[in-house]
């Protein structure tokens, strides 16, 4: 995946907030806020969605329908973190720029919803929760539940 | 499979949020969040986060989703 423009996330600690900044390489390096061209942003979002679909296909094959190997889990996490990283940058660019009206109904909220799903996947598969804690939560929230085969 | 009605409903909500059309995703995840909050509020683990609940139920979710994928594939193979 290639991010179409340079994006930097600056911590403006003095102001107590984070700001997304798109730095245009062709302009002077003043750090002025500038939005990405809307058509490029929409294209990048579509590319991201395609990668997410590809990721979930692989997840179904290697983690859901098969017993995943350590390598499968490692690859899954790396791919997922990459998608999250890119998605967070797209979300920031959507804030500083504007997603053009489109027939697919993609808005900044659509990106946030995708990010929610990806974070749920990250926690679901890679939180490292131990079995005792897991079973305790299941018991506390749902009562008795027969456990799936390991 | 779990066959616990509360858990089944939660797994189904997560499945629908993951597999629905992109336009529905925001509403579907809102349903998952709302269901998780209700479940947590009525449990003894009031400080549990939604992500912890998702992590705890992932092995059950894996079985749930695998069953659905296999059913879909069987249906498709019958159609061909």
Provide a short characterization of the protein structure.
Helices cover 57% and strands 8% of the residues of chain A.
Structural features, described:
The complex is a heterodimer of chains A (150) and B (80). Chain A has helices at residues 38-64, 70-96, 108-126, 131-142, and strands at residues 7-12, 17-22. By secondary structure, chain A is mostly helical. Chain A has a domain at 36-131. Chain A has a two-stranded antiparallel sheet. In chain A, a hairpin with a 4-residue loop joins strand 1 and strand 2 (17-22). In chain A, helix 1 packs antiparallel against helix 2. The longest helix of chain A has 27 residues, at 38-64. By secondary structure, chain B is mostly helical. Chain B has one domain (5-79). In chain B, 76% of the residues lie in helices and 0% in strands. Chain B contains 4 helices and no strands. Chain B has helices at 5-19, 25-41, 50-56, 58-79. In chain B, helix 1 (5-19) packs antiparallel against helix 2 (25-41). The N and C termini of chain B lie far apart (29 Å). The A-B interface holds A 49, 56, 60, 63-65, 104-106, 109-110, 112-114, 116-117, 119-120, 123-125, 127, 129, 133-134, 136-138, 140-148 and B 1-4, 6-7, 10, 14, 17-18, 22-23, 25-26, 29, 32, 39-40, 43-45, 48, 51-63, 65-66, 69-70.
Shape of chain A: elongated
Quaternary structure state of the chains depicted: heterodimer
Please, how many helices of chain A? 4
Backbone CA Rg of chain B? 14 Å
Tell me the total number of β-strands of chain B.
0
Helical amount of chain A: 55-70%
Across the major sheet of chain A, the strand order is 1-2
Largest interface: A-B, 37 and 39 residues
Number of strands of chain A: 2
Radius of gyration of chain A: 19 Å
Class derived from helix and strand content of chain B: mainly alpha
For the report, how would you describe the main beta sheet of chain A? Answer: 2 strands, antiparallel
Mean pLDDT of chain B: 92
Which class do the helix and strand fractions of chain A yield? mainly alpha
Order of helices and strands of chain A: EEHHHH
């Amino acid at each position: 995946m290639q991010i179409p423009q340079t994006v930097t996330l600056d911590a403006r600690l003095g102001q107590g907030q984070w700001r997304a900044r798109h730095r245009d390489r062709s302009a002077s390096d003043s750090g002025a806020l500038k939005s990405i061209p809307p058509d490029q942003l929409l294209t990048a979002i579509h590319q991201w969605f395609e990668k997410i679909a590809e990721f979930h296909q692989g997840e179904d094959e290697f983690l859901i329908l098969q017993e995943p190997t350590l390598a499968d889990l490692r690859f899954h996490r790396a791919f997922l973190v990459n998608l999250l990283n890119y998605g967070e940058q797209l979300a920031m660019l959507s804030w500083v720029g504007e997603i053009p009206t489109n027939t697919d109904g993609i808005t900044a909220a659509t990106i946030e919803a995708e990010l929610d799903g990806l974070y749920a996947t990250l926690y679901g598969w890679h939180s490292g929760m131990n079995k005792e804690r897991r079973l305790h939560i299941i018991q506390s929230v749902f009562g008795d539940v027969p456990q799936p085969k390991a | 499979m779990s066959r616990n009605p509360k858990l089944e409903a939660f797994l189904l909500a997560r499945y629908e949020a993951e597999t629905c059309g992109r336009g529905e995703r925001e509403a579907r995840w809102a349903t998952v969040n709302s269901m998780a909050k209700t479940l947590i509020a009525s449990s003894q683990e009031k400080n549990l986060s939604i992500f912890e609940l998702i992590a705890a139920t992932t092995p059950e979710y894996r079985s749930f989703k695998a069953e659905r994928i296999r059913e879909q594939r069987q249906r498709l193979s019958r159609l061909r």
